[in-house]
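Entry:
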Amino acid sequence: MSPSDLPTTASAGRDDDLGRGKMPLCREPWESYYILRRGILPCCHGNPIIAPITDWAAAWNSSQVQEIRRYLSQGRLSPYCLESRGCPIVQRVLHEQETTGDSSALPSRPFVLRLVNRLMFRIPGRLVRFFRQRKQKKRRR
């Protein structure tokens, strides 16, 4: 899905603002990104940073941003988005998932991995997140 396929701001309804209208769930990664002193974010609610401020040109089409775009264009939240709990779209999708039990907007993991994670008090998931963040910090240096 290219940026030209996205609904324009003038044609987007109020429901579309929170990912309720046409796909993608969010348009931010196609329209803009945020350059702050601490680094570059793909949206205003983004966390963690995707690149240092000096790599602003390369960050626009980085593999991480392309992955976020791919998930959102499919109507699903990327793992990056799920880490950004302050985002109203993420909050709405997670709330709907809790109330309806529908997890189609969430990235799916094999049942065995989910089961092992639960049986081990979610320690494997925490370790994976810890090492991913550590790896990202090393890349920024």
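The longest strand covers residues 34-36.
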